[in-house]
Amino acid sequence: MALTKLEDVTYFDLNNQINIPIDGQIPLNKDQEALEAFLAENVEPNTIKFDSIKQRLDYLTKNQYYETDFLTKYSLTFIEKLYDYLNSQDFHFKSFMAAYKFYAQYALQTDDKEHYLESFVDRAAVNALYFADGDQQLAMDLADEIIHQRYQPATPSFLNAGRQRRGELVSCFLIQTTDDMNTIGRTINSALQLSRIGGGVGINLTNLRGAGDPIKHITGAASGVVPVMKLLEDSFSYSNQLGQRQGAGVVYLSVFHPDIIAFLGAKKENADEKIRLKTLSLGIVVPDKFYDLIKEDADMYLFSPYDVEREYNTPFAYVDITKEYDNLVANENIHKKKIKARDLETEISKLQQESGYPYVINIDTANHSNPIHGRIVMSNLCSEILQVQTPSTVNDRQEYTQLGTDVSCNLGSTNINNLMSSPNFGHSVEAMVRALTFVTDHSNIDVVPSVQKGNQEAHSIGLGAMGLHSFLAKNHIYYGSPESIEFTGVYFMLLNYWTLMASNQIAKERNQTFVNFEKSKYADGSYFDKYLTHSYGPTSDKVKSLFDGVFIPQPADWEKLKEAVMNYGLYHQNRLAVAPNGSISYINDTTASLHPIINRIEERQESKIGKIYYPAPYLSNDTMPYYQSAYDIDMRQVIDVYAAAQEHVDQGMSLTLFMRSTIPEGLYEWKDGRTDKMTTRDLNILRNYAHYKGIKSIYYIRTFTDDQSEVGANQCESCVI
């Protein structure tokens, strides 16, 4: 039997029976039956067997499935040793969904798609060998982390490692344009090239002059950002890896840009087809001043980027609007127009209700806590990457006259439940950092020189986490409770501490730091101030018990780390970021990211085969009360959980807010005596609360409507899958 000719299989029917209660109980045993049937009916008969590891590797390299270079860095004896260890760990998928997703999307198949060439053990082995780059001890360490699912590389890394015919190892990109036709053209070309490579592309348009601004040497006026957005959407639609996937991009614009209303309007369902954006995502860059003007119910001024750049001699995105607002208003050389701040706030909420967009980047929050010299001006397609950039300029020949820096994202996730069971939390994190370091060291996106330069100078990575809700439920903790917030804070404090330790050790070994380290708050030691005066360890008995046996650094430990960092530096400019992750969390048999679940039994529509059901990890009568749906949780509790993590995360997190069209009674006190329907006021309050709590970014607004559908779909496959 071949994969393309499967008939009379039973596992889909068995899986679907999970959704049919028996005597009021969820028949979870049907999922295990479906898993066993899938392995017996699909995987076992369709996996090509080899007599030895040598025979298998010879076949895969000869037939151009695997690269040979990474394998030649090890002896066959060592590779066999690594396989012996992996096989001895007796890995098993825990759910049908996990096994199905792995074999459907990650396992290497023959070119004719008729047979499997890899098991999970094989993919773990190749990842370990590839990312260890010849270091035998690191290869064993990574094999240990991956087979026990404490570490999950991002999809591009996990999927492509070791393959001869592959895409890039990185997840996504951030680029920007400055205010002239040459850089617009270069940006469109960059979008085409990056979309071809794979991954989502974030593009900052804030520097572009608004509609009606003058054009030098031409009698007329600029058309503004919307036509550029249309060009970019068409570029992503065209550059789609030969139709294998939809190209994905997001454009960012400051709320103080004069085209902000047109920018938002282009995503509305009733927008004119000439300007309507169907697939391009939208994000807004929001300085603190906007929130101040909202509170004062004041007018707000939108400023001409063209004039601001001439007055300040710097692109509009790099001007601190909050600091300069009054000066900008008073400057007669800067054209401006006036709107009501609350009117814009309402427009933002209306669009979020309708489409889930725009993402929100609280740019001053991001910059105030940023320890790196320079300015953050935008984010990526999933809103968790926040890194400093510098602008580029391009001449009439499309050559860089000033090469700035842009961003590529090198991501991976810890599995919270499994890492909490690690025999050595710090050693585990160090192995993960070294695997991510391989990715950044070997990424060379030369088709976009600004991205190449940014990566070479920053060596940035983004280690995150998945499985918070399943860990909390397993340990009888309600999502959003004080204990859940406390646990989250301690966990991410530990990630921060150990990634700093690892980055410092790598800098010491290589005698190399990221560019401009000496201008950072790490170099002068001020970054560590809060850790020297306050212990961020657990305080409640419940959370203390969860961290029993785990080293908790105290101020004295942070003092030693501070001294080491000041002496030897850090290799990575950025270290932590929490992506949304989706299908990859199924393979880990855990819940996605830091979000609460949507359903105890999740229903997924899979192309060609129909519905698949996935019970929440560790679901039982015992844990069921702790699995509240995100749509029934006060979003302020979700914000509080994310804020506890954000305290220690140097970049951002993909925070999604989940709303119902009809709000459950008693969920939000401000609804009492008012309509129970979700309104723009609800979203206004929650966005302002997130800003107050120090949240750097808000990803989608997902709305569960009264007709049982969802508004606000996830498109960032590189971070999500």
Automatic annotation (TrEMBL):
InterPro entries reported for this sequence: NrdE_NrdA_C, RNR_1b_NrdE, RNR_lg_C, RNR_lsu_N, RNR_N, RNR_R1-su_N, Rrm1
One of the Pfam families matching this protein, by short name: Ribonuc_red_lgC
Keyword flag Oxidoreductase: yes
The protein's name: Ribonucleoside-diphosphate reductase
Protein species of origin: Lentilactobacillus senioris DSM 24302 = JCM 17472
Reactions this protein catalyses: a 2'-deoxyribonucleoside 5'-diphosphate + [thioredoxin]-disulfide + H2O = a ribonucleoside 5'-diphosphate + [thioredoxin]-dithiol
SUPFAM superfamilies: PFL-like glycyl radical enzymes, R1 subunit of ribonucleotide reductase, N-terminal domain
Assigned GO CC terms: ribonucleoside-diphosphate reductase complex
Keywords: Allosteric enzyme, ATP-binding, Deoxyribonucleotide synthesis, Disulfide bond, Nucleotide-binding, Oxidoreductase
